Predict the structure.
Amino acid sequence: MQLQESLRVTLVRDTQPRLTQGCLLSQIRGFLQFFLCLCLIPVPIALGSANGPTKPISTNAPAKPRKSIVILGDSLAAGYGLDLSEAFPAILQRRIDAANLPFQIVNAGLSGDTTAGGLRRIDWLLKRPLDILLLELGGNDGLRGISIDSTRTNLQTIIQKTRARYPEAKIVIAGMEMPPNMGHQFQSAFRAIFPEVARAHQATLIPFLLENVGGKPELNLVDMIHPTAKGHEIVANNVWKVLEPVLKEALKGSVPKKNSNSQ
């Protein structure tokens, strides 16, 4: 009942213009971050080194190149109401670094974005190297009552564009769910979008991004929409369980295969 009431508030608030100072700052921050992606700055957006010392780069040898993980998302990826270092993409980067995995996250989260918005942005994002795409979009589609077919088509088209540019790219899709007050038929159809798209495009599915976070006051900001720093830690856990094996598999695929015809 608590989750239903919380998500009802989400529906009402997400369909109204947000003019609070915090929201504007978050949207400006998200825009600036996305703008850096568009400019294709050669230095990757560092999310994992802000809270701890980094190893000095050796001047005797070039730094080992890192593979790119692009998180195309909305206010959840953008860390609405928090410092970027507290959002789940930054937490994931710290785990990647701790595991000594050669991946760099590019956080392309933008508050209020929909699958249609993500589709408009993907061509720009594909101008820079991409090895793994984590799609965290669709929640705002559902809350705004956008048709199931439109959401599904947009997600599929984003994947198709990504694979056309980078055929070997791994795709991870974050599943989302709608509150019961959206109606049982819509709720069921919306939930089914993400596993359907994942199966159709050989993508890896995160069953529900906000598992063990949604509807819990102690893990959400006062708006009961966006996770707190502690909530983002749990979201990062949900993602990491699925993402870590994908990263390790991607590294295996990057090892050059021995030519069986060579002597």
Notes: Confidence is low (pLDDT under 50) at residues 1-21, 36-61, 255-263. The chain has one domain: 2-14+66-253. The longest helix spans residues 229-253.
